[in-house]
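#data-curation
PF: Archiving a pair of folding outputs for the training set. Convention for this channel: one message per protein, sequence first, structure tokens after, nothing in between. First:
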Amino acid sequence: MAGPLASRQKPERQFAPGQAHTCVFSESPPKLIVSPASSSLGQKPELKDLILMADSKPLLSLDGDPAAAEALLQDVFGIVVDEVIRKGTSASEKVCEWKEPEELKQLLDLELRSEGESQEQILERCRAVIRYSVKTCHPRFFNQLFSGLDPHALAGRIVTESLNTSQYTYEIAPVFVLMEEEVLKKLRALVGWSSGDGVFCPGGSISNMYAMNLARYQRYPDCKQRGLRALPPLALFTSKECHYSIKKGAAFLGLGTDSVRIVQADERGKMIPEDLEQQIRLAEAEGAVPFLVSATSGTTVLGAFDPLEAIADVCQRHGLWLHVDAAWGGSVLLSQTHRHLLDGIQRADSVAWNPHKLLSVGLQCSALLLRDTSNLLKRCHGSQASYLFQQDKFYDVTLDTGDKVVQCGRRVDCLKLWLMWKAQGGQGLERRVDQAFALARYLAEELKKREGFELVMEPEFVNVCFWFVPPSLRGKKGSPDYNERLAKVAPILKESMVKKGSMMIGYQPHGTRGNFFRMVVANPALTRVDMDFLLNELEQLGQDL
């Protein structure tokens, strides 16, 4: 086969199966020479052979042909622009091309083999991966709390991946150490803090876990060295509408899921401060030590915002750390019109905020913000690794932020947000948030006009939750099996839309409510046309149910 991958040298002679041999490079360009080993299989190569290998030219990709490497990347970028950006954001294309797992395995040919493949085959692999992947940037992808594609953020992601550095020391990531702090400073200012600390984390779940660990360390610093034996039974408090990462974090940190005390929520999904007070007193009466309250700004399903001022009052009375999980709703702080939903957030000790959700920055971009100015992050997590965080460096070593985090290697997550913000400005991002609210309201009003659609509740955020009632169930709400039959509708319609490739919407049960759709209005490219399509498509898919 022609091309650079077909030009590999073959051994000059063959050996019997099992006969040991060594391979070295010589000449310029390098030529592979294979000779029988002077001893049995498994013995280390001779020193002279290793030296010859070290003296050879660098083993670059594509046989050291930089022109071929550049051509490959140009071809891949071309495929990405055409298949992901152009087609993947077009309403006339499918959101997904569904295949059953066994068929998909065969189509992708996932097996990893000893021999490499040609450039043409590699490009075809890229096309296949894109073809059978869900297009989350598509205007009809409503399935998750993230969607859409911002070109400036994508440019930042491409630059980030190309530079391939780790965000732990100034010496290897000078631009990004300074950039991360500037971005975090801006996010803190939106929360209402003039100072503080923070770090980008690998997702909102980890941000929440960091907050729990910091709150525990602040109260019991000995636990860093002595572990759980330094702790009394602890209790943390969160709403029944909280993200599941709170219980996962409690388990991961050794607190145990029993340490998570569930606070009741009202009919709209908001934490009830009076029940929080009661749960704190109950925990104390049972011998536990309360240490943290995790409130939520933008719950996953209903999009509810907990009453932060009242919750902060409770935390202040009891001396508890207040964490606000604003992974979903944090971006509302950019909107002068809607930021009142987070009134009181400035009183929190920590905030989790995921710009990769409502702002469409791209996965992943999750910030943990702290009001603390005592270097709590580093005191809690630092281990002073001498090979990395030398204190006698030639620059200000406080710029080496890597000891603040649990990770060693840490990807750069600030560039995509910074570049998008530079392009859009705060005003442009505010318009995005306001537009999402406006479209969610438009959808809710259109739902009310159509037979067969029923809102679960009036939306407060950009989560629009509703049932589609098919023709066979209309007018039968009082029948004994109505709720059971209605709960089966969303899964059936979800299968139909996915296999057709027309759109994707999430559904779930919630408390005593049977399955309903949760429409997420987050993609900045959405218009009223997309809202109308959603309703029309559900009517078409469900007309025979």
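PF: Second:
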Amino acid sequence: MEPGALGLLYLCLAGVLLAPASRTWGIPGGGGGLRLAARRDGGPGVLPHPTQLPLRIPREGSGCALAAPAPLWVPPGCRGAQGRFAYKLLHDLFANYSSALRPVEDTDRALNVTLQVTLSQIIDMDERNQVLTSYLWVRQAWLDAHLTWDKDDYGGIDSIRIPSSYVWRPDIILYNNADEHFGGSMETNVVLRSDGHIMWDSPAITKSSCKVDVSYFPFDGQRCRLTFGSWTYNGNQIDLRNRLDTGDLTDFVENVEWEVLGMPATRNVITYGCCSEPYPDVTYTLLLRRRASFYIFNLLLPCIMVSFLAPLGFYLPADSGEKVSLGVTVLLALTVFQLLVAESMPPSESVPLIGKYYIATMTMITASTALTIFIMNVHHCGPGARPVPPWARRLILHHMARLCCVYEVGESCKSPQRAPGGRGSRGDAGGPWESPGEGGVGAEAGGCPRDHCPCHHDALLRNVGYIAGCFRRHRANQRRTGDWKKVAKVMDRFFMWIFFLMVFLMSVLVLGNAA
């Protein structure tokens, strides 16, 4: 430590210890403002608490105004001037004030209250219970005739912020509140101005009832109303008006599921059945549109892809044994998707668009499964079945087969079409086993001498004729069975294209309604 500083410290300590009990010593450089009161027993002085100092309101010209740059130390009278004025103002305002009465000079006149709502966030939209949970900033403003002052008398104080419970507040509530606790706004401060105007900003998490229309889910839009009004004061006592024509969406936090299109505000005056006086209210209509990307990729596209599997059941070979199993599996998959949609939708008469699509697809798959069973029955017609009727042969095996490009092995779209019901040449129809029998009969009819032909024995001729007859009947049964199998194949191809077209049209219809 420097010798000069050490000497100065010794001098200060000696002066404090040798001073009388009633003397005070100023700290060097303090200008005499801050003083240490010496103890009567000669001990070191202590600094008194600011609340123990007498209230000193400086007058003009007392030197409290500090020129910039201000020193680090400020006299206590100048430092607490604004606070002392605020305490005095608060004491004077609420000395004879009651927060229970409507603050008007003339009780026959209505008090104007303006309302402004700022939407900060959409927390949740419960479609099943039809409840909208939102985070709002509610601003109310009114004039309190009993809380005015002249700001020149209180050091130029123009406004103060005090707890909202100190002043009268309008009982503005949310009419369509759906919260079981029915909680109000948060107890925040109000801004009180010298002319009596009060502005109260309070945040609130509200649960409001909202009529949800899910007719076009997941491409739907909702209109949720937030109706604010006084619960006990009628229109002759409080004139409630909206400050702006729309809600404030400047600080809105974007929602992942809902897009806010607007929030118009309207003022209504309604006379309820309980009372004869009119009751004004301000209704904010929240216009919402659902973001459908999540539902498209998780509900709609899987349903469309599963639906396109149903017509492929007609393309499976009948001998595979999986045609009916495929239809039942697709039907069960769509039933699971239908249950997922039904769990999130409210129980109402309006069926959502995606629900209608599921029902139509399930109906189509049920019909395709039933047709598959019928076609398999046609395919497995045995030898005892009747021949294909002429009209069915002409319509199905000729026209529909050409339309669906169904041909036998070795045929193609460019091959010449045989006549309906036509048979091949004799050699093709009877085969090599049929020629000997027919040749033998012809030889016999041609006059082969029976006596001179050793092969013409009665037993041999009967056996050959029997074998030829069995072979002809077997070929006829095979031809009849083949015709029915071809009928089943043509019907499979025809219904496959029909159901493909139905699935495509239903998908386009759903997307068209969404647009």
